[in-house]
Known about the structure:
single chain; elongated
Amino acid sequence: MADTQTATKKATQQLQASMRDMEPAEMGRDMVQYLREYARENPESAALWCFGIGFVLGWKLKIW
């Protein structure tokens, strides 16, 4: 258990350090790339997320 927590802390610190060095445009490209990979690996889950987000946005931003 302690090994998992230590590994998680180390990974979090490395991620934070790498994010400080990134430019916003690069972060955006990385996020888009990650989402595309996730959608390829989990198409059903990605489709449900898109449907859910679209439903909530459509419900809250309706014109009438």
